[in-house]
Every structure is written in C-alpha cells, then in structure tokens.
C-alpha cells in the first residue's frame, strides 16, 4: 500500500465516503459486547477520520498506519481531540506491540491490502494477541462480487476545486485480486497543478476463508454483516462490502 503523496489530497477526494456509517456499526457492536469497551485500536487508520470520531465519543483511541504521511495528516487535523496515540507500523508486523485493547477495528477495506493467506493469518494472529479477554475484532472487506463485477476493468474519476484523479482497476492473476492505478492532479499554488501516480494492490477472499482463519486462530462468536446493515448473517452473493465481528 502506498498513500504517500496521496495523503495530501485523500480527505478531499473521500468526502462522500460514509464514515459515519462505520461509526454507527462500531457503536452498535460495542453496545452488544459482553464486556465494557473503552480502549480501541484502529488498524489502517489513514488520516484518522474514524479514529477521531470515536475519540470524540469518549473512547481511548490508538491509530495505526504504515504511511507516515497519512499519520502526519491525521495529527494535523486533530481539532479538539488531542489524546490519540499514533503508531507507524504495518498491521502484519504488530507482533512486537505489547499493549492490549478492548477492541480492534480495521475499516474501509484495509484488510484487502493483505493479499496472501499467510499474511492474513499472521495479521489476525497479531490482532488476537492485541486483545484483552472477550475483546472484539471488527473489520470489513470488499466482496468477491465487488472486486470481480464492480471494480475490475472499470475506470473512475472525480474532480474538486483543488484536485482530480483518474482511477483504473486492473485485474491480477488470482481470483479476487486487483491493482489500482491512480493518477492525481493536485493544485499547489495559484493555477499550478502537479501530477503524480500511485499503484495499490488489493485482494479479497471468500467469506468462509476469512471465517475459517479467524476460527483457526481462536476467535469465537463470529458474526457476518453486509453493506452497513446491522442485521447479522444477511449477506449474499451480490453483497458489496462484508463486515466481520469476532470475539477473543
């Protein structure tokens, strides 16, 4: 995953992303939890939009991302929230992190950037170790339908007053694998625009594959949701975004 130069324009181009819907789901998962949830680690937090929203709601937040540029942007945009702990680390390399949390979240298809099963298992093992007993792990992924039928082979674009992008979705060699070729135009001074590119690699796996890895590691009470519905186990072959909730 890149997100280097892109950090400068990321929030402006993501204005229509339904972050509040993620927050609603997370709060619902917390309300249903077997134990009180206070400390939350946000894995792949990006510029920290969800991290800040939860911190403003009173949760003790830690934001994790491997992009120093995204974390720098997150810290600049703190506003009235100043108590968030930020960590620069890849989510597959969290085995050295010893602090434990009541809940781990990973939103906006971050787990899709973990593109082989060995690394998915390693990441989930590390997350399991991060959690207190009865702690929760909540994450989402693109469905196979979304990757194969909605994204691959398509080109998307958007223009704002300060930036524009062209986003091409290119198939990979494996089922559920895709590459995002992103070309950005960013206004720096006056009418001057700079052009830069990033290439992102994502892969998704069938729902049962993620579920079986969670079980193998020791997670229990696994629930599956789709497309921001709060009704569990209502996903189908045309669901676009799959959510998992698992308990340690």
From TrEMBL:
Q: What protein am I looking at?
A: Methyltransferase YqeM
Q: Which InterPro entries match?
A: Methyltransf_25 (IPR041698), SAM-dependent_MTases_sf (IPR029063)
> Which gene specifies this protein's sequence?
yqeM
Q: Which GO terms describe its molecular function?
A: methyltransferase activity
Q: State the source organism's domain of life.
A: Bacteria
Residue stretches making up the Methyltransferase domain:
40-135
Q: What is the lineage of its organism?
A: Bacteria, Bacillati, Bacillota, Bacilli, Bacillales
The record ties this protein, via SUPFAM superfamilies, to: S-adenosyl-L-methionine-dependent methyltransferases
One Pfam family here: Methyltransf_25
Which BP terms from GO are recorded? Answer: methylation
Where does this protein come from, organism-wise? Oceanobacillus neutriphilus
Q: Does the keyword Transferase apply?
A: yes
Keyword NADP attributed: no
UniProt keyword list: Methyltransferase, Transferase
């Amino acid at each position: 995953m890149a997100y280097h130069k892109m950090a400068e324009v990321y929030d402006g181009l993501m204005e229509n992303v339904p972050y509040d819907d993620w927050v609603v789901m997370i709060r619902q998962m917390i309300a249903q939890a077997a134990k009180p949830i206070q400390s939350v680690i946000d894995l792949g937090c990006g510029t920290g939009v969800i991290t800040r929203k939860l911190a403003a709601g009173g949760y003790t937040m830690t934001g994790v991302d491997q992009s120093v540029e995204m974390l720098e942007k997150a810290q600049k945009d703190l506003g009235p929230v100043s108590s968030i702990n930020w960590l620069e680390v890849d989510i597959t390399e969290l085995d050295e992190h010893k602090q434990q949390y009541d809940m781990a979240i990973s939103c906006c298809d971050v787990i899709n950037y973990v593109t082989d099963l060995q690394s998915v298992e390693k990441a989930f093992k590390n997350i399991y170790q991060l959690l207190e007993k009865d702690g929760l792990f909540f994450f989402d992924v693109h469905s196979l339908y979304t990757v194969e039928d909605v994204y691959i082979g398509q080109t998307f674009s958007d223009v704002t007053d300060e930036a524009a992008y062209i986003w091409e979705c290119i198939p990979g060699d494996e089922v559920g694998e895709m590459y995002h070729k992103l070309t950005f135009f960013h206004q720096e001074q006056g009418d001057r625009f700079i052009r830069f590119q990033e290439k992102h690699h994502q892969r998704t796996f069938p729902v049962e594959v993620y579920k079986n890895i969670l079980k193998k590691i020791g997670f229990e009470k696994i629930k599956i949701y789709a497309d921001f519905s709060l009704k569990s186990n209502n996903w189908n072959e045309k669901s676009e975004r799959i959510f998992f909730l698992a308990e340690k």
